[in-house]
Amino acid sequence: MGESITHLKVPVEPEQRGTCLGPDGSVAHVSRVLGMISGRWKLPILFRLFAEPAMRTSQLLRDIPDLSQKVLTQHLRELESDGLVARRDLGRQPPHVEYRLTHAGLNLLPVLMSMREFSRSHSLDTVERSAD
Predict the structure, then answer these.
(1) Residue pair 51/94 in contact by the 8 Å Cβ criterion
(2) I need a labelling partner for 125 at 20 to 30 A (CA). Which of 7, 23, 60, 103 fits?
(3) 101: part of which helix (H) or strand (E)?
């Protein structure tokens, strides 16, 4: 039964296994980032904020079809608490709030672009292999 557990077969020396699987290992860090961006609308929100330096809630709602105000607010709060998005209240009446990416949010762009390229190349590889 123990042999069927594949996550214990990480190709590292046994004394270095914590580097990958420990509480501060690679798996924990990658899982944390995936948790930050999981949610149906988080990636569309992040990519819109990559495209525009600052956006109001109404702009995000216009640009992302089928996204409700409630879910947008929820996702923006989660992204803010994860340190990826900053909320800026401009102190006007009626309330004027803008959202922008933080430094951490901007640093996430190359990671997401790498994931996009992996997806593109993986899709092509899968199609090519199935054709052979």
Answers:
(1) no
(2) 7
(3) strand 97-101
Measure the CA dihedral 114/118/124/126, to 10°: -170
The secondary structure element, H or E, covering residue 86 is: strand 85-89
46 falls within a domain: yes
SS3 88: strand
Identify the three-state secondary structure at position 92.
coil
Domain assignment present for 103: yes
pLDDT at 36 over 60: yes
Dump pLDDT digits (tens) for 59-69.
999 999 999 99
Q: Which residue has the higher pLDDT, 25 or 104?
A: 104
pLDDT, the chain, mean: 85
CATH of the domain at 81: 1.10.10.10
